[in-house]
Amino acid sequence: MERKGIVRWLLVFCVTWTFFGYLFPELLWNGDICKSAWIMTEEDGELVKEELSLSGEALLNAILEAEPGEIHGRSKLLEIWNAFWKKGRKVSDKSMEQKLVAEAPIGVFDSGVGGLTVAREIMRQIPNEKIVYFGDTARVPYGSKSKETVTRFSRQIVRFLQTHQVKTIVVACNTASAYALEDLEREIDIPIIGVVKPGAKAAAEATKNGRIGVIATEATIGSRIYSQYIKKIHPEVTIYGKACPLFVPLVEEGLWEDPVTDEIAKRYLNELIDIDIDTLILGCTHYPLIRSTLARIMGDKVTLVNPAYETARELREMLEEKGLLKETPVALGENKYQFYVSDGAEKFKTFANSIIKYGILSAKTINIENF
To answer: Is the pLDDT reported for residue 77 higher than 90?
Structure first.
């Protein structure tokens, strides 16, 4: 019996060893088999992919010490680790919780270039702050995508921004604010704000006749998110939504003051003029760039609400309340504003320099799917 027991335990040990050897070959066999792993590092201002050839305990330590999204690969250990923090309810776990300090930058993201209007307002209203901006130019627009897709994209971007130790995140995209903000608020341990609530609050306070118009992407209008927030503040108002999908490509082509933009705007806005609204929310961050056109068509009796301006104002108040407002200017030579995109860095840089007069020195392309 004693001999059978020893054989049984040996059999159990061998099966267990084989099972864990299949799951974690880097630990048990200690083989140099992790050439498919890599880490993103920065050299001369550019993100580069550095191959790793680690095994055993060294690989485990590298993974456990890495920031979210920093190490990537196709080994079993890396797959399971990535699944743990990518697919769990938390964007990052408590061991990766970031220390909030006033000196840390503000993270800002958008589906493309429209969020630059929010970044511009932050630069104007909170000039001492550092900013890390990400524009998802490879996957724009978000307005025609599903809630699940926009939420997944937003989670990836948040993980990327967290690698820069940001102290707060601004979702500078109306569609992402409508679809993903509530999930992100539950999942991360740093303050996060969107552009919808500040704009809704300003519109509810501005209206005199209780008739508010909202122009935005199809997704934002379909979500009725502005109506929900405005009704909480001012239940008696009536909200009229109008999707204006052509405004985004017109803005991105630089046709801000162009007969084509005027004609399209008139077609979109005529029905809002006919129903006598007195307040109009520019419910897409691209739209402030054609504000003069919209104001001319709507007339002097209609107040235009710019959520980008309102968001920067609310952000400042939030930072003050939490003791995170940066009081001193950025040191000479320090990189104050960093810009990242998922595609077309040069085109983005040219566009950004046309609307932000602070000298954007560079924009870097990253593979956001790695996060």
So the answer is: no
Give the integer Cα–Cα distance in Å for 136 and 151.
13
Residue 12 has pLDDT above 90, yes or no: no
Q: How far is CA 188 from the centre of its chain?
A: 13
Closest by CA position to 190, among listed 114, 132, 122, 272: 132
Q: What's the chain's average pLDDT? A: 81
pLDDT at 146 over 50: yes
CATH architecture of 91-371: 3-Layer(aba) Sandwich (3.40)
The 8 Å CB, 24+ separation contacts for 233-237 are: 233/200, 233/201, 233/204, 233/205, 234/204, 234/207, 234/210, 236/210, 237/204, 237/207, 237/210, 237/211, 237/212
Per DSSP, the chain holds a count of helices (H) and strands (E) of 16, 13
Which neighbouring-strand residues pair with 133?
A: 108, 339
Pairing status of strand 71-72 against strand 38-43: antiparallel
CA 360 to CA 292: how far, in whole Å? Answer: 25
Question: Phi-psi bin for 39: left (phi > 0), alpha (psi -120 to 50), beta?
Answer: beta
Q: Which residues are catalytic?
A: 173, 284
**What are the sequence ranges of the domains in the chain?**
14-88, 91-371
Q: Of 47-61, 193-207, 326-340, where does mean pLDDT reach its minimum?
A: 47-61
Question: d(Cα 221, Cα 322) in Å, to the nearest integer?
Answer: 33
pTM: 0.71
CA Rg, the chain, in Å? Answer: 25
- Give which of 139, 150, 302 is closest to 215, Cα–Cα: 302
Q: Is the Cβ–Cβ distance between 200 and 106 less than 8 Å? A: no
Q: Determine if residue 69 is left, alpha or beta; phi over 0 gives left, psi from -120 to 50 gives alpha, anything else beta.
A: left
Per-residue model confidence as pLDDT tens digits over 223-279: 898 999 999 998 999 999 999 989 988 888 888 888 999 999 999 999 899 998 999
Label residue 217 by pLDDT band (50, 70, 90): confident
